[in-house]
Amino acid sequence: MKLEGVKVIDLSMFLPGPHFTMMMADHGADVIRVEPLGGEPSRELGWKQDGQSVWFRNTHRGKRSLRLNLKDPRGKALLLKLVAEADVFVEGFRPGVMARLGLDYETLKTHAPQLIYCSLSAFGQTGRYRDKPAHNVAMEALLGTVSFNLGHDGKPAMPGIPAADMCGSLTAFAGVLMALLRQRTTGQGDYLDIAMHDALLAWTANYQGPIFAARQAHQVKLERNWGGAAFYNAYETRDAQWLVMGGSELHFCANVLNKAGRPDLIDLCREPPGLAQQPVADFLREFFAARTLEDALAWLGDVDCCYAPVRTLLEGTLDPNTRERGMLLSDGDGRDHLGIPIKYSEEPGRVDFRVPALGEHSEAIARAAGLDDTLIAEMIRDGVL
Fold first, then answer.
1. In what order do the strands lie in the sheet with 242-246?
2. Is residue 113 in some structural domain?
3. Choosing from 10, 87, 165, 198, which is the catalytic residue?
4. Are residues 44 and 4 in contact, defined by beta-carbon separation less than 8 angstroms?
5. Is 207 a residue whose pLDDT tops 80?
6. How far is CA 222 from CA 148, 229, 288, in A?
7. Does the pLDDT at position 357 exceed 80?
8. Quick one: pLDDT at residue 190?
9. Domain shared by 298 and 329, yes or no
10. Which one, 95, 194, 201, 217, has least CB within 10 Å?
11. Domain coverage including residue 257
């Protein structure tokens, strides 16, 4: 597999860091998950199946678990032994924590100049917000993306997807892979300061028009991305279901309006999103309100246009296409797992369904690092390992 031979030490928690290091494990990396004595918090969060957190299963498969007290000199010494042989080191603490532990990049690179050290945090290691604690919704609110989620009452809704967390995960993943490419040429590591807030801002490239061009805030309800375009909006059907029209290119609009017997509305779809397209939106609202969702989908079935029913995540996940794409897998005990989204034709990733118990590999990892059985027994007795 692509990352076979790459050694990763992961101290991050919750979602962003564990998610991207799991993707590395899916493609062959040896990922040692260093957990505090109390364990990774997501082991106990959310729904469980067979006594195991689904969240933890979806972010930790294929890794090895090392339960370690880093405040004890013996625990820190073991970590330094592992770092000396590692390629990648990932941490997700607030700025300053790793320096206080003596595990910051400047310290570790003296032991391992090849080390790629990734700090993944809310606001990064510099700037006025560096010490501000935040989870996804606070980062989205501060950046301004929550303001896009306006309901029919004009009030913002909570984000449906942890966008800051996940684009932070993917940005870190890309950054680490680029650094690995360079490391293979030069033998030298690097330091990555990845802020989830930065990553989310970078994902707003197609939204920056009024800001860059006129220093003007978005008029959300009048703009294409949030319902200002008649053919980029959600419509309620007669049975209180919802349907999304999701493509406002003129030929898609024309295909629908011609079949509906309203070619007179096509030219309005050439107009900018907003009030000029309101007659088209009013027509579509009445059109779909007169039909059940099933009838509306049947009517659209032979029309070349972008549309979809508004489903629950349950329905979307269990769609037959999900298994056809290898994105819903089952292990030998019938438990479901998410698949691998990066699909290579050569050396494809492989899911290791095994999820480590807390500290399951501690003794083996310590022994492989050169610790003798007497020291290992002492560290277990003293609550270090």
1. 232-236, 242-246, 307-309
2. yes
3. 165
4. no
5. yes
6. 11, 8, 21
7. yes
8. 98
9. no
10. 217
11. 232-305
